[in-house]
Amino acid sequence: MVLNVLELVGLVAFAASGALAGVRARLDIFGVVVVGLATALGGGIIRDVLLGVQPPTTLQTWYYLSAGAATALIVFAFHPHVARLHKAVLVADAVGLGVFATAGTAVALQLDAPVYTACLIGMTTGIGGGVIRDLLLRSIPLVLRKEIYALAALLGASMVGLGHVLGLPEGPVTAVAATTVVAVRLLALWRRWNAPVARDSA
Amino acid sequence: MVLNVLELVGLVAFAASGALAGVRARLDIFGVVVVGLATALGGGIIRDVLLGVQPPTTLQTWYYLSAGAATALIVFAFHPHVARLHKAVLVADAVGLGVFATAGTAVALQLDAPVYTACLIGMTTGIGGGVIRDLLLRSIPLVLRKEIYALAALLGASMVGLGHVLGLPEGPVTAVAATTVVAVRLLALWRRWNAPVARDSA
Amino acid sequence: MVLNVLELVGLVAFAASGALAGVRARLDIFGVVVVGLATALGGGIIRDVLLGVQPPTTLQTWYYLSAGAATALIVFAFHPHVARLHKAVLVADAVGLGVFATAGTAVALQLDAPVYTACLIGMTTGIGGGVIRDLLLRSIPLVLRKEIYALAALLGASMVGLGHVLGLPEGPVTAVAATTVVAVRLLALWRRWNAPVARDSA
């Protein structure tokens, strides 16, 4: 139940991030919906393919697709002023990252994946949608940029894995872990936490 | 039988679109064959992975690969004048899109996927090859450009799904649906049917 | 046993090629590790998805990930002078290509894939990691460039397939085939073996 709500939140957030990035790239309404849906459904499809859930869950019921498409259309109609789009993409992406990384881990655990594997698949689920969005729009993937990204997803996934090992209730743990990822990612963006770049010679 | 012929037509069309785009990007003969094969086989491999057909059909018999490679080599030897390559890519791509979106839906239905799921997988099969081609060549994916693309694929996939629900014979329905997609897509290109772009502020 | 050692060599080589390319693209330490891991694990994950090994082997035990991450971190700390990075990427990529194309074929044969299918999956395993690296970093994929690449991978995969048909011992055959691929690829780079480019008109 908590998991279902979280998944929907992540889906809407990623659909919004994709649609906002599409508007920013001056795509028309179809392109915006395609990027929104690819971002929203991509992570979950990757998760299901890695776990052997075929056909993928998100292609089996109409409400995932509808929620994603509706979000993209609403963004298309009421997007923020273009100058503010970049920030909006980053915030929506942070929410999607946090929710999908942790809910993806929980789903993998429910399907009896080992804890270690579940954490990696969860992290991949969180990162996947954003990578697809950035590849389609030919921008530098967020996961390669200067602020903490994959590490935040791995942190959240590990919290869910740890909760599972300790036997804690899944719903609340996932919610707390997702919130942590979003907080870490937004803090990293806001404070411009940067990691070192390699020296020029060695 | 009709389905096999259609699949071969789609494969040749997509191999040609990939090879033509490769020639246009000044690739050598190996690069042209690689892009041609990736475009021709990509959609079907995505379909099989989503449906759990492992290893994918197109990697199981030699004639898919041979037909794709032969097409790419013929294109390499006898491609149209470079100035006309862009149009040739678009036309070949439209044929591949139509055939793969509809034949992909029919294959998914044969493998007992629910109708709704089959339509989405069919649409993805149609779109997949072209997206791989455009990502490899670093061009803006056709699916994001201004003319109707994914919607045409979804239309054809839905026609096959509807025919299945109504119990109509699969072969002819698929052929008609494929032709419809190609016609819609070429009309959209020819008449430059555009969809609205988002306003600059809101 | 020989196969496990080879896989580890390929993984380290691809992790190094990804990390070197990441340093060259001025990524920070996280980005370098992400590209290194995606390059090192990508090919094997594609292989496992095509063969229906779910979850993928490389996500099931900690040492693949650790070896890849450690390699990326070492490269980050002690990479060659930036001016020489491009050559280092190419050499590491050649080793990864050779090992993964041949070991991938051997793994597919062990999982009872037909010889023809196993060779194609092996070739894809070899090519896959490098394509992911180049797409993430938005460079022209090596597989499309002028020197022999996919053909070298296919040659090595076919040698393993032929050895299997002839009933030769798997380990040594794979090692010889991998060495052949690396030699062919490095020779092609060194001697600038080029294939013809299409004429401008026809």
Please explain how this structure is put together.
Three copies of one chain form a homotrimer. Helices cover 74% and strands 0% of the residues of chain A. The first copy, chain A, has seven helices and no strands. Chain A has one domain (2-191). Chain A has 202 residues and is mainly α. Chain A binds chain B through residues 22-23, 25-35, 45, 49, 52, 54-56, 59-62, 65, 76-82, 135-138, and chain B through 49-52, 108, 113-114, 116-117, 120-121, 131, 135, 138, 140-141, 143-146, 148-151, 194-198, 200-202.
List the topology elements:
The structure is a homotrimer of 202-residue chains.
Chain A: H1 2-24, H2 29-51, H3 62-78, H4 85-110, H5 115-136, H6 150-166, H7 170-191
Helix pairs in contact in A: 1-2, 1-3, 1-4, 2-3, 2-4, 2-5, 4-5, 4-6, 4-7, 5-6, 6-7
Please give the count of helices of chain A. 7
Strand content of chain A: under 5%
For the biggest sheet of chain A, the summary is:
none
* Global morphology of chain A: globular
Order of helices and strands of chain A: HHHHHHH
Report, as a whole number of angstroms, the end-to-end distance of chain A. 53 Å
Rg on CA atoms of chain A, Å: 16 Å
Can you give the mean pLDDT of chain A? 90
Please report the two chains with the greatest interface, counting residues with C-beta closer than 8 angstroms to the partner's C-beta.
Answer: A-B, 35 and 32 residues
Question: What oligomeric state is this?
Answer: homotrimer
How many domain units of chain A?
1
Structural class of chain A: mainly alpha
**Uncertain regions of chain A: pLDDT < 50 for 5+ in a row?**
none
DSSP helix fraction of chain A: over 70%
Number of strands of chain A: 0
